[in-house]
Amino acid sequence: MFSLFPAHDYALIAVILGMPLLGAFVNGIWGKRLGDAAVKLMALVALGVSFAAAVVAFIMLADHVGAEKNEHVKLTWTAWEWMHTTGGYGGSNVPIDVTFSIDALNGVMMLVITGVGFLIHLYATSYMEGDPGYARFFAYLNLFVFAMLVLVLGDNLPLLFVGWEGVGLCSYLLIGFWYENPANAAAGKKAFIANRIGDFGLLCAMFLLAHYTDSLDWNGIARGAHNLILPGEPYRVYVWPLGNGQYTGLLKFLQPAHPVTISAATAVGLALLLGCTGKSAQIPLYVWLPDAMAGPTPVSALIHAATMVTAGVYLICRLSFVFVLSPFVMMVVAIVGAATALLAASIALVQNDIKKVLAYSTVSQLGFMFLGVGVGAFTAGFFHVFTHAFFKACLFLGAGSVIHAMHARIHDDTAAQDVRLMGGLRKWLPITHWTFAAATAAIIGLPLTSGFFSKDEILYRAFVDHTVSPITAAHSYEPPPWIGPTLFWVAFVAAVMTAFYMCRLYFLTFWGDFKGWTVGRPSLLAKEELEHGANGHDHADHEHHEDLTTPGYPPHESPWQMTVPLVVLAVFALIAGFLNPGFHIVREKPMDHWLEPVFKAATEHAVLFGHGNDEAWAEHMELPLGLCGIAAFLIGTGLAYYFYVAKKGEPAKRAAEAMPALHQLLLDKWRVDEFYDATVIAAVDSLADTSAIVDKNVVDAILARLTSTIVATAGTLLRAVQTGVVQVYAATMVVGIALIAWFFAAPHASYTVVDDGNDDYVVTAAPGVGYGYRWDSDGDGTPDKASFGPDSTLKLHVVPGKDVTVNLEVKNTFGLVKKTAIHVTRPNAPVSSL
Amino acid sequence: MIPVESYIALSALLFVIGGIGFLVRRNVLVTLMSIEIMLNAANLALVAFNRSGFAHVDGQAFAGASHTGQLFAFFIIAAEAAEVAVGLAIVLSLYRLRRTVRSDEADLLRN
Prior knowledge:
With 834 residues, chain A is mostly helical. Chain A is 59% helix and 9% strand. Chain A has helices at 12-34, 36-67, 104-127, 134-153, 157-175, 182-213, 218-224, 264-279, 288-291, 297-306, 311-318, 320-323, 327-348, 354-374, 378-410, 430-444, 450-464, 483-510, 527-531, 560-575, 590-603, 610-613, 615-646, 650-658, 660-667, 672-719, 726-745; strands spanning 75-86, 93-102, 236-240, 260-263, 465-467, 607-609, 751-757, 760-765, 772-776, 793-797, 803-811, 817-825. In chain A, β11 (803-811) and β12 form a beta hairpin. The termini of chain A are far apart. Chain B has 111 residues and is mainly α. Chain B is elongated and about 60 Å long.
């Protein structure tokens, strides 16, 4: 096995990557003809084999790690050499190859993508049953998994970018999967465009890295990273004026007294951060993710919760050694994360659409991850990616199961997702209920669940960590000491809100009384009768084209293809935390130990503890801060229980009535979309309007219409010549031939005059067939010689200020003679007649 | 022996007759015949020059020993035959289409 797949040529990656691509290809090309059963088989086999290969690769990686004493082990495979570019220093060659690698970091990602991906594919085989686009759906979904694997397994930034764009494309295609509804298509477009803005940042970062580090693959960037913080002005990035240009003339007032510069590390970090905020839905580009819920629920679970949106966090982890070079960027990452966590959590408090709540919850949790990596706790941030993949996928799939059940009853896409119409569903959906409860417990931080450990670690590290530049530079930025505690308390409030809104969602959905009886259609049975003995499982044969005037069935539990993934994910949501438990429950945290080689280089000198790297203080703070985390859980959960179970939603109503403006503001999502509409989108629209005016009045009117008028007029005039009589054309031809014959029969006395230096000029007559020349070098009208000779050049001596006239006679074969006078005037020389 | 100039004069006369016939007559059949006359004028010039010209073999000149002019004439005769075959076919279909063989009435491409 080891000899078959050596670490430097690890071709097993081809299987991991190739199977989903094959699935996408087969289902995309032949899916309609194959039928749903074959499509299902192809998609599941593709993901299953890919997952199995990923497990094998992971085990082999662990073996290598064990054998090499925890060095940063990589299994690499170069598919082919792609292209070369030129670096900034000495024009060195920067190879860009299609190389994939597996190391400790993306090995875990790979397992999550293929493993959770497989479960969600299994779920989707049932969830999407009967959809006319069944094959298309699985083709897209397989393609997404392929692109996501390219993203995480790519060994250089351009290859990551290929995957990055690939997942963006699949995300767009799947958000707009039901494109007949214009709202869905618009949501897809919004996601795509918001991501484009982020991609611009990623591209800029790529150019800067190629310029400064002379490399684009991970090892090369790590080797050249020190170039990013070289001291001295030439190595810095000129923010204003851009590229250290000069403003002159009217724009001179724009020229600053001192150019504004930042270190290359800061520029790269900020550009990368822009890319990450786009893909990972952070402020300011988070607005696309809530709208992305227009896609089918398995898509929300796989792409918009478990995998794609964590790509930004992955990229920050992957390039952690670049980020830590600029403590300022680290601080910005942490602030963006904390602010997003708080903002999204506050919106989630009042939303009524079950998927919208989960969407804002995802944005908020991604904020926690950014906070984690921003304070230098890369392992903690990445661990939250890992645990979040399980519990958020479980929550989305559970929500899908609930919507599935509700849809069978209500037959209205919007109403089926409204938590106000749910309630008491635990009676009919026992498995969904228990798995949803487990995942909720994990996300709100019930002690010993996965979310508890991962979130508490982030909160703790936000408080105690202090990032400094690993190399003391004159420009290095020192984050203020109050930033850590501030981030902690912001995250604490966000955690309280998380506990509150998740419990609110859980209680409203599964507890209390079912409120959906009267929506859309009458019930089949009396309400009491249903509650005492009706069993939803008997009515699994619901049809989606029923007559809505007849009574509907009660909600029912989903089939096994949907419940099995739920159970597996719920189990992982509960126990995955023990891979990295805090509070010294185990002697060595397995995840910490596993990822140490990846992050050691970055964090060793850059991430210190606060209070002047006081390790004892940090140790001492762990328990009280952990208790704060538990307190956040207790406060949020207790409030939600009091609001929605003990008092049946009364206090929530009263609070909303007491502060109607605030409530409306939260319901309107802080009106950020409206703000963007009024500023960015309005600006682009007005630019488009201006361009349209220019297009209509300049391009269309002058360029296009004027040109066409000229052509049409010329055509009208020339049409008169076009008689259609053959003899007229022939006569025209005869005239043309006669003219050409005359041109060749007549002699041509053309010449050139060349300055030969020393006041000498050489006159050269043009050659021709049978030409003879006769010169009159003194210009008196009498030729020098009586006969025509072959000498075609004449040397002249012209002193400055003098005029010389020379006569040239040319005689051709037919005896025709042409005479021309040549004036050579100083100082206006040389002259030419050609 | 008749000097070559006489042949060339006859050839030029024939060519001019053919050219004028082509330009002034409107009957397509006559037009075709004019073309034939022009081609034959060229043929006459070729064979006449061939007779009076010299072939150069190993630096020595031999009067009337070259056959290039005759060969050319044969090629032109073959091309003429093909041209007439196609030309008459065109005239025939023109007549079927327009019920005329006058070239000034066959002016579908006018203006």
